[in-house]
Design brief:
2 domains; 4 helices; globular; disordered N terminus; disordered C terminus; Polymer-forming cytoskeletal protein; alpha/beta; ten-stranded parallel sheet; 37% strand; BacA/B
């Protein structure tokens, strides 16, 4: 899926970034090989690359098995294989990806195996990562936490949160007030999650 009116320099760089790891060819060969590979992925029903152009603003969640280049604005959660946030782009929300490259603005939570914050980036996020690179000159405000599996740890966190919300709803309906938690209560809560 391509949301772009023109093939700008950053879109070409995105295409090069995406195809770089897939072929060992030189730049011109890589571009034609990358186009051919994209067509093959479309024919086989596999994921493709998407470009959110600078004129596009999305409010809501975006999920794909493919790669995403954002030059516009996204206010919502993004789940993809590779996310590149362009220099003029803004992404606000939860980002879950195998790899994230930030060249523009990112706010929220980033969970990725590899995170690269480039010198033009402005990041105000909690970053959960296996590998992190912050270039000199980048603005990074927030927290960085290394994790062996930052992408999949989110699922257990979400299930724990859902279990706690369910307990809170039951307490509201029954009109009971929370009491001081004993160790056995804490163990029971952990078992629910």
């Amino acid at each position: 899926m391509l949301f772009s009116r023109s093939s700008g320099e950053e879109a070409n760089q995105f295409h090069a970034d995406v195809t770089e790891g897939h072929t060992g060819a030189s730049a011109p060969e890589s571009q034609s090989a990358g186009k051919e590979q994209t067509l093959n992925r479309i024919d086989k029903g596999k994921s493709t690359s998407s470009v959110i152009d600078e004129w596009l603003s999305i409010t809501g969640n975006l999920q794909t098995d493919g790669d995403v280049l954002v030059n516009g604005k996204i206010h919502g959660d993004v789940r993809c294989k590779l996310l590149i946030v362009g220099q003029q782009a803004e992404v606000e929300g939860l980002v879950v990806a195998d790899e994230v490259v930030v060249r523009g603005a990112a706010r929220g939570v980033i969970r990725a195996n590899r995170v690269r914050i480039e010198k033009s980036a402005r990041v105000d996020s909690e970053v959960f990562h296996r590998a992190l690179c912050v270039e000199e000159g980048a603005e990074f405000v927030g927290m960085s936490r290394r994790s062996d599996d930052p992408v999949n740890e989110l699922a257990s966190t979400e299930s724990q949160s859902a279990a706690l919300q369910e307990v809170a709803e039951k307490m509201k309906k029954s009109g009971s007030k929370p009491a001081a938690a004993s160790k056995s209560d804490t163990d029971k809560s952990a078992a629910v999650a």
